[in-house]
Amino acid sequence: MDAPTTTSPQPRREPTNFREFLGAIGRPFVEVGGTVRGIFSVFGLTLYYLVRGRTRWKAIFEQLHEVGNRSVVFIAVTLGFLGAILIYLAGFQALQITGDLQMLGGLFLQLLLREFAPTIAAMMIATRVATGMAAQIGSMVVTEQVDALRMSAAQPIDYLVVPRFIATTIMMIVLTIFAVLVAYSAGALTAYLSFGLNVRTFVDMSFIGWFDVLLGLSKALAYGMAIPIVACHAGLNVFGGSEGVGRATTAAVVNASLAVVILDFIISGIGYVILSLVS
Q1: What's the mean pLDDT when you consider all of the chain?
Q2: Residue among 134, 136, 130 at smallest CA distance from 248
Q3: N or C, where is the chain less crowded by C-beta within 10 Å?
């Protein structure tokens, strides 16, 4: 008589739709984590080659012209109109509430230094410069020029990213100062033409302290370091030919703008915590 045979239980399989549902939920988090990890990796290598690599002055000056000189008109028009609009709206509201415009210029300058000028200028630079960097480096990846650099014992980070990093960091600070001057001048002109406010009354430095200047310059420095790293990371990770270059330029603008917003939140929070402790 044959012994009874036992069959091992089959593993329970989850429904395919449920696995696809979980994959759809987790995939964005995995992609975001990989992007953040790659950006920090590029940033670390950039700092390494910034110290240990060879300084390419010609490439740096070319990027200074590309980032700075070609952004002057863009920044001037944008910040000029926004400064005029803000002063007109703020002055109109002040007349309705208090009827006093003497503090308008001082408070506006404080707003410019702390938040408005560095952040808006960085958004404009992220829009114009990040796309160009991602497209240039992405095209080099597609045409295998980056692979040729590696075969020639030249590191792409040192050759491509470091000059853009140095130039954008320097010009972001310069363009922030320029944005403050343009927006404040446009605001003073608007206050004079719209409300008859004397320019000497508008130019008020009594609200400005070391904290305002330091906070604005810290933001400009952080934005200038973040934008080229994010843009170059998008360009170096291009795949799929010309369509990949298009995806990289879109990712560069979105990620650079998001980096500006996150850094703005972090630096503002740290700055106000330090101010509360000091005062």
Answers
A1: 86
A2: 134
A3: N
**CB–CB of 226/271 below 8 Å?**
no
Q: What is the DSSP letter of 53?
A: S
Q: 203 and 104 in contact (C-beta within 8 Å)?
A: no
Q: Can you tell me which residue has the tokens 């508008």?
A: 202
Estimate to the nearest angstrom the gap between the alpha carbon of 238 and the chain centroid.
Answer: 20
CA–CA distance, 67 with 143 (Å, rounded to integer): 24
Q: How far apart are CA 194 and CA 90, in angstroms?
A: 12
Distance separating alpha carbons of residues 226 and 68, to the nearest angstrom = 16
Q: Give 112's DSSP letter.
A: I
CA distances from 42 to 146, 222, 254 (A): 15, 16, 18
Q: Note the pLDDT tens digit of each residue in 25-41.
A: 666 667 777 788 888 89
Q: Per residue in 201-254, pLDDT tens?
A: 889 888 888 888 999 999 999 999 999 999 999 988 888 777 888 888 888 999
Nearest partner of 72 among 177, 186, 213, 204, judged by Cα:
177
Residues 6+ away with beta carbon under 8 Å from 252: 130, 131, 133, 134, 230, 231, 234, 235
Q: Are 122 and 67 in contact (CB under 8 A)?
A: no
For the ranges 86-90, 119-123, 150-154, 221-225, which has the lowest average pLDDT?
150-154
Please report, for the chain, the start and end positions of each structural domain, with discontinuous segments joined by +.
57-274
Q: How far apart are CA 30 and CA 241, in angstroms?
A: 24
Burial class for 269, CB neighbours closer than 10 Å (0-12, 13-18, 19+): exposed
C-alpha pair distances (Å), 184 with each of 25, 75, 136: 47, 13, 35
